[in-house]
Write a structure and sequence with these properties.
5 helices; 9 strands; 23% helix; alpha+beta; nine-stranded antiparallel β-sheet
Length: 210
């Protein structure tokens, strides 16, 4: 699977676009709150966002760890897109700066290649690693129900992991069938090659009555 775009919405849900093994372009508008690990993965993009958008925190600073902690208060990365291939593969970051006037400045970083020798960004390799971690968490959200949920809403015993929903109990040979099964009943919107897929109702298990 090749993640093309991912965005955390203002409601803290996930919108994503990817190409699957068959070359289909799939767009998801999720309705479940993202897990804290996905939030942390996006937060790790903020230092790169500061450098690539030439924010004032990056002026006169050559080493990323020397960036002030205030960047996490003043800047936020809400999404990214990946394009190109092989040596020309790279990413564009989308985010915002919170101004002293309480207004928000929306920003897009320039497209930055991960491994091209002509790329001037000195932390391109590290950017690629962070994007890969974001992709990992996006896939967990899409296919393994790794969502943040409220404890009392858990549909299973209290000794289970309260951070994530249980993994699907059904495995299909078709990843798209598996994705539709995962999203059933969540209210998420699924589009494949520009065609919206009708949601299926979640399966109900019938109980045997003695």
């Amino acid at each position: 699977m090749n993640i093309l775009k991912a965005k955390v919405t203002k409601d803290n849900t996930l919108e994503a676009m990817f190409k699957n093994e068959n070359g289909d372009t799939v767009t998801i508008d999720g309705k479940n709150i993202v897990h804290k690990d996905l939030t942390a993965a996006f937060t790790a993009l903020i230092p790169h966002f500061a450098f690539l958008c030439e924010q004032r925190e990056s002026y006169m600073i050559d080493i990323m760890p020397d960036l002030p902690d205030t960047i996490y208060e003043n800047l936020e990365v809400t999404g990214y897109s990946v394009g190109g291939s092989d040596n020309s593969e790279g990413a564009t970051l989308t985010g915002k700066r919170f101004l002293k006037s309480s207004k928000i400045l929306n920003l897009n970083s320039p497209f930055t290649m991960f491994s091209n020798e002509n790329e001037e960004y000195k932390y391109a390799f590290e950017l690629h690693e962070v994007i890969q971690n974001c992709n990992f968490e996006v896939e967990k959200y899409l296919f393994e129900k790794k969502w943040a949920i409220v404890q009392q809403d858990l549909p299973f015993d209290g000794d289970a992991n309260s951070d994530t929903m249980p993994f699907p109990d059904h495995v299909s040979d078709n990843p798209l069938d598996e994705l539709v099964e995962t999203l059933a009943g969540t209210g998420a919107s699924l589009t494949i090659n520009g065609k919206k897929v009708k949601q299926r109702r979640p399966r109900q298990v019938k109980e045997n009555v003695a």
